[in-house]
Amino acid sequence: MSAPARVGIVGLGKIVGAYLSTLPRLPNLALTAVADLDPTRVDAVAAAHPGVAPLRPDELYASDVVDVVLNLTIPAAHGQVALAAIRAGKHVYGEKPLAASVAEAREILAAAEQAGVAVGCAPDTVLGTGVQTARAALDAGQIGRPLAATAFMTTPGHELWHPDPEFYYRAGGGPLLDMGPYYLSALVTLLGPVKRVVGLSSQPQARRTIGSGPKAGTQFDVEVPTHISGVLEHEGGALSTMLMSFDVWAAQLPRIEVYGDTGTLSVPDPNGFDGRVRVYEGAGRAPEDRGWTELDVLGGFTDAARGFGLSDMARGIASQSPFRASGELAFHVLEVMEGVLAAGSTGQAVDITSRCDRPAAVPAGARPQDF
User: Fold this and answer.
1) Residue 172 — very low, low, confident or very high, per pLDDT cuts 50/70/90?
2) pTM of the full structure
3) Going from the N-terminus, what domains does the chain have, and what CATH number goes with each?
4) Counting beta carbons within 10 angstroms of the beta carbon of residue 7, is it exposed (0 to 12), middle (13 to 18) or buried (19 or more)?
């Protein structure tokens, strides 16, 4: 693919706007087609983007003007759409999680290998200046040997703002599968893959009430745990403590912190691409010289947004080289999440059988099409 990779989007819900605003900035990508089960959405997007073909999903998979299917459907449909695209010979890049289960994700990767196509998966927020600056500081030894980390995501629930939140509370949803990929992808980027997990989970509310939009006041059943605590043992020995909850009204917890034997690293929200990175260097310093310092940007794609992972994937396909937001990373993250949920229901530690390479660092000032 020496020419721009031709992208067909399947699923035109709320998240599509973020991708539509980014794709024109990425010269190695060209949007050529869109599809959705709702034809009014298809017509609206196609009308706003001249030259983009409005298609049904089956037409898009078969289209000869599409190289890569960008899968923006709801989590429960991720696997079905990915497999349909792969069977049609298309590369696939999807929103997270890779699939609703490890078994389904394994089927996706096996089908892609057999078809000779690539699979990528969000989140690509870890490619921005926030997590990449933190990684550069870690790699430079600014807090010594990493010993542990914390990762906290707390909210009272997406039904307060989302007009159609039910899918967040069904199979494939919940705070861990919804937001965990951001935090776990960041932890793997910083500390490497995970080999064992323990966890506990609960479901404090059996029903939720939609707070906005045309369905405001409507109640629906909760089918998944909404408060999850876990501990991850990384291959390198560090222990990460994680809390993911849809049941906390307010908290003053750090998003991610990494604790080393000489200091501490404060990492910004991994749901964003940038943010302040701060380091506390303690060992070897006089008490009056210890304290927090904000770091300059040390790595990451500048002005990154959703779609940069897809652009990096297109670069990898064209150069036949690894790309960062890979299916293997997404599979590992999904197995970790499924392991934490399994540990929460059984009370037993769960070994993680998959491994993935720690994704390559992104140099400061890089653009995904440059290398």
Assistant:
1) confident
2) 0.94
3) 5-121 (3.40.50.720), 126-294 (3.30.360.10)
4) buried
